[in-house]
């Protein structure tokens, strides 16, 4: 299998919610920085001007960094930003101290562990605790990396020439970062009268048995909303940001998302798409506060009477009309009216032209639906008259409404609306972890089905309905027959099929269906998967 590049590793870490930044590396036994062999921290200090403050999960930024510095070591920001802290156990002294701690307080859970030059990095979830950076506080030879700190990630090169590598080859995609036991949190927690940031804000308790699942669900929701903000059409950006904050705010009462981290990530995403600082934070704060009032129903909690399904607040049609009454009477104003009323129903891409959302996915406008939406926009201009004070202004607005229904006016409205509702073609179907089906969109990271959402920009759909309780007796019988009742082979087929549901290519695998004779189910299986996936 092809060896992973530093860029692919960095992107993979970011996809898991770990904020990364590029570090200098080791070249011919020396640091790649200008100090070379005289460097005090070879292969460990940042390449970017602001160091760990530049750490991000933004794919474009990460790819740009590693395109510029392909061999750069990878730094992972610790603490609240990535929701982890790391024990840096250095050499025999650190190993002995850790042994003493475990003998005194109890064992540590299995977690992601990275072999460093002389010791190991042990990753832990901070569980809302405020964890700072310390040297020797937990024990001789044991450093702690938390808020404002970072560690060198697996795949990087140590000054000794050895690679930082996962112990037993078990990486972040094979073993979960464990939650630290209370005794360890007591040793590493920052001195603070507040204690923890999120536990005191927990209003909806989650059973311990469901916590891991809930946190995975919340992390996936956070990534999905950030993706939606990143690809929002120009005229929908502020609204998309507000909805994202609302949706994530609904998870804050459970204590599984940190509002400070949500705010920071949304601010970063909003700035990248060109929103002004003056409107970013008020929009996020408004959405978060509104979402907190209506905790989301978590699908894996059977009994959850405290919650009910609530969608983000929408402006009433009359309020929209009142706001549009403030516009003028030009073709440009009409384009604005069209975008305001139907920005969630229509969008434009340079390669595919106009697309219309049919309730499940975006489809090419082959039957003139955009023209019909433009006609509706023009007709509704007359209703704006009720919000104008002067009789002459009301009469002029009614006359303008009639003029706007002319062929030329409609064409100009549609043409000028393109730039307001434009989306790059590459943004369509860009989330490789979403599988669109007839009765919703499945997040393949969690296996959960959500309502169809135009913000996902999906144009493809599998012509099937998802049913997690389906028994599939005929398929199980078929699978048993073609595998010769080989459970390991059946499990491999399941894994291959599941991987094929995604758009992920990082594993760089190609599956061959092989059989010594005909009529053994190869074509049937392949055709079944192909027909199930549809587009």
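^ Assign residues to that structure.
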């Amino acid at each position: 299998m092809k060896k992973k590049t530093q860029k692919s590793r960095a992107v993979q870490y970011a996809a898991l919610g770990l904020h990364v930044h590029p570090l200098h590396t080791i070249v011919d036994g020396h640091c790649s920085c200008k100090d070379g062999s005289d460097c005090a921290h070879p292969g460990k200090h940042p390449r970017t001007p602001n160091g760990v403050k530049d750490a991000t999960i933004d794919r474009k930024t990460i790819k740009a960094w590693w395109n510029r510095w392909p061999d750069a070591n990878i730094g992972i920001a610790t603490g609240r930003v990535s929701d982890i802290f790391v024990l840096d156990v250095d050499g025999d002294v650190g190993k002995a101290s850790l042994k003493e701690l475990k003998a005194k307080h109890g064992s540590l859970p299995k977690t992601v562990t990275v072999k460093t030059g002389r010791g190991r990095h042990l990753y832990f979830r901070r569980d809302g605790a405020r964890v700072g950076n310390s040297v020797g506080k937990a024990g001789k030879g044991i450093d702690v990396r938390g808020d404002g700190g970072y560690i060198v990630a697996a795949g990087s090169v140590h000054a000794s020439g050895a690679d930082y590598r996962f112990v037993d080859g078990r990486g972040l995609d094979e073993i979960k970062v464990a939650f630290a036991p209370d005794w360890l949190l007591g040793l590493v927690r920052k001195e603070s009268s507040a204690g923890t940031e999120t536990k005191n804000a927990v209003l909806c308790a989650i059973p311990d048995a469901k916590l891991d699942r809930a946190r995975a669900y919340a992390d996936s929701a956070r990534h999905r909303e950030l993706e939606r903000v990143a690809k929002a059409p120009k005229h929908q950006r502020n609204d998309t940001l507000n909805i994202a904050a609302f949706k994530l705010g609904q998870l804050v009462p459970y204590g599984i998302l940190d509002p400070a981290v949500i705010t920071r990530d949304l601010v970063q995403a909003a700035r990248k798409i060109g929103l002004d600082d003056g409107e970013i934070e008020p929009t996020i704060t408004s959405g978060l506060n509104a979402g907190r009032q209506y905790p989301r129903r978590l699908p894996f909690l059977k009994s959850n009477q405290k919650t009910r399904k609530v969608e983000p607040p929408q402006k009433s049609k009359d309020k929209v009309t009142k706001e549009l009454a403030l516009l003028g009477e030009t073709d440009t104003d009409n384009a604005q009216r069209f975008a305001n009323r139907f920005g969630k129903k229509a969008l434009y891409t340079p390669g595919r032209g106009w697309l219309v959302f049919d309730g499940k996915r975006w489809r090419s406008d082959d039957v003139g639906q955009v023209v019909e939406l433009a006609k509706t926009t023009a007709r509704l201009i007359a209703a704006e008259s009720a919000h104008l004070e002067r009789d002459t202004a009301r009469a002029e607005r009614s006359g303008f409404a009639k003029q706007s229904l002319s062929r030329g006016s409609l064409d100009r409205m549609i043409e000028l609306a393109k730039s307001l509702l434009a989306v790059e073609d590459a943004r369509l179907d860009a989330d490789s972890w979403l599988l669109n089906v007839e009765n919703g969109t499945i997040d393949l990271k969690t296996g959960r089905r959500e309502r169809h959402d135009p913000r996902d920009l999906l144009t493809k759909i599998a012509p099937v309905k998802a049913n997690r309780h389906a028994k599939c007796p005929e398929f199980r019988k078929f699978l048993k027959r073609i595998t010769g009742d080989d459970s390991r082979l059946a499990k491999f087929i399941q894994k291959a099929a599941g991987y094929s549901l995604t758009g992920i290519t990082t594993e760089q695998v190609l599956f061959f269906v092989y059989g010594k004779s005909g009529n053994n189910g190869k074509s049937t299986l392949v055709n079944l998967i192909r027909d199930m996936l549809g587009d």
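The chain has 16 helices and 18 strands.
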